[in-house]
TrEMBL record:
Keywords: NAD, Oxidoreductase
Pfam families with a match to the protein in the record: Mannitol_dh (PF01232), Mannitol_dh_C (PF08125)
Record bears the keyword Nuclease: no
GO molecular-function term, one example from the UniProt record: oxidoreductase activity, acting on the CH-OH group of donors, NAD or NADP as acceptor
Residue ranges of every copy of the Mannitol dehydrogenase N-terminal domain listed in the record: 30-277
Biological process (GO), any one: mannitol metabolic process
Domain Mannitol dehydrogenase C-terminal intervals: 286-475
Highest taxon of the lineage: Bacteria
Stated name of the protein: Mannitol dehydrogenase
Length: 491
């Protein structure tokens, strides 16, 4: 018999999955979180659930907030089950389900007055975000785009903000006026120096509104950088059916994820923090080495396998890893070009770390889709691939494999697989990418003229030459043949 998830059914679900053993009525919100998606619920919310299970810090529960249509769908799903989430952690050998209870509510989506009122509440001491890589209004150089229409609108009407960052500025302005200690702003998104990027966004709006407010934010508000890691695919009917079949639980929006999780965080907070070190969070003075390692080796590695797999019609990441040509491509690019660009990381052997990444990519339980890994390349490539190319060029080292990865992305954006099947639009800027990819078929280097993606390295002649050679070969010989030549004849 299937049991629908709710607070009332937790005693029955306890025989099928772990459930909160703490009294949720004792929880109070200390964190307001923007972007209550799958990753947040599989990562930050799980750490807090574990902390609450230890009887610690029950005044640091999560209150959700959002401004996007997807936030409304999530709110509707979670409200119907008392803000509980079933998280299924999967290794290659087994799956374990747990119900997390760290979230205790969610504000009306897009209700600026309600959101700013809670941001002004002294009980809220951390504002965290998972708004995706593309949600920070930044270009390839990392600069905050103050000319974006949504940002201009928030600066022009500071008492009616509609963006996450405009809301944060409004909340901080109200706290400053009331003499309340400011909250910490903590990005949990997969962006290099995510704290710095978030700080630039908040200050970019604040400076346009009130120079004194911006100066106060600069001096009083903490924006810690953090490295977050857990592979968390999107939820579909397959996951809902698996939860029912394997555990007999009906959840409106469950989360399936790998059993690996990591969070490295700089210990800089404006108004205190929960004792997350008790449940595995690693606090460090500088997160840079860890985030560089993860973004280049893991996220860059995802890009390396994604586009050849997409062109070959492969559906899942583990199937790509079962394809010898793609696995050999990943191993060679990582070993020869990506890992050498990563500075030493305290307490970490980079070769061993890559071995863990390979095993994670190959986990058949996760069913992480190639389409998800190919998504939003216009935002991801400048963060995950371009910096490695820049470092290789700077040192005079070879970039054959990374140039091939870029060419595979361009070929993917043409919109057909190697066997002619259509690739549906898979990027916010797909129309432009598709148009430029078509032109690049005969003029390869035009792809690198997209300044917002490649910046200065797009003008580097060694990269232009290697990219052009790779793209022409993909069109002439196809993905399999090109990968086989690169990998030294592996098949």
């Amino acid at each position: 018999m299937t049991i629908a998830l709710s607070a009332a059914t937790l005693p029955d679900i306890a025989a099928r999955a772990s459930v909160p053993v703490y009294d949720r009525s004792t929880l109070s919100a200390g964190i307001l979180h923007f972007g209550v998606g799958n990753f947040h619920r599989a990562h930050q919310a799980v750490y807090l659930d574990s902390l609450f299970t230890r009887g610690r810090d029950h005044d640091w529960a999560i209150l959700g907030a959002g401004v996007m249509p997807s936030d409304q769908r999530m709110r509707d799903a979670l409200e119907g089950q008392d803000w509980l989430t079933t998280v299924v952690e999967q290794s290659g050998a087994r799956s374990l389900a747990r119900v997390t209870g760290a979230m205790i509510g969610m504000l009306p989506v897009g209700d600026g007055d309600a959101i700013v009122a809670r941001l002004a509440d002294p009980a809220i001491r951390i504002v965290s975000l998972t708004v995706t890589e593309g949600g920070y209004y930044i270009d390839a150089s990392g600069k905050f785009d103050t000319d974006h229409p949504a940002i201009r609108a928030d600066i022009a009407a500071p008492f009616r903000p509609t963006t996450v960052f405009g809301l944060i500025v409004a909340g901080l302005a109200r706290r400053r006026a009331a003499g309340t200690v400011p909250f910490t702003v903590m990005s949990c998104d997969n962006i290099p120096h995510n704290g710095v990027v978030t700080r630039n966004a908040v200050l970019g709006i604040a400076k346009g509104i009130d120079a004194d407010l911006a100066t106060w934010i600069e001096g009083a508000v903490a924006f810690p950088n953090g490295m977050v890691d857990r592979i968390t695919p999107a939820t579909g009917m397959q996951e809902r059916e698996a939860l029912d079949r394997d555990f007999g639980i009906a959840d409106n929006w469950p989360v399936f994820c790998e059993d690996f999780t990591q969070w490295v965080l700089e210990d800089r907070f404006s108004a205190g923090r929960p004792a997350l070190e008790a449940v595995g969070v690693q606090f460090v003075p500088d997160v840079t080495p860890f985030e560089t390692m993860k973004i280049r080796i893991l996220n860059g590695g995802h890009a390396v396998i994604a586009y050849p797999a997409g062109l070959l019609g492969i559906t899942y990441a583990h199937e790509a890893m079962e394809t010898p040509l793609i696995r050999a491509f990943l191993q060679k690019v990582e070993r020869d070009e990506i890992i050498p660009t990563v500075p030493p990381v305290p307490g970490t052997d980079l070769t061993s770390y890559f071995g863990i990444i390979e095993r994670r990519f190959a986990n058949p339980k996760i069913k992480d889709t190639i389409r998800r890994l190919c998504l939003d390349g216009s935002n991801r490539q400048p963060k995950f691939i371009v910096p490695s190319i820049a470092d290789r060029l700077k040192s005079g080292a070879g970039i054959e494999g990374l140039a091939l990865e870029s060419a595979l992305w361009c070929r993917y954006c043409f919109g057909t697989t190697d066997d002619g099947q259509p690739i549906e639009p898979n990027d916010p800027d797909w129309d432009r990418l598709n148009r430029v990819a078509a032109q690049a078929r005969s003029e390869p280097a035009v792809w690198l003229d997209q300044e917002d993606i490649y910046g200065e390295i797009g003008r580097a002649q060694p990269f232009r030459d290697a990219f052009s050679t790779a793209l022409r070969a993909l069109w002439t010989d196809g993905t399999r043949a090109v990968l086989a030549r690169y990998a030294g004849g592996s098949n």
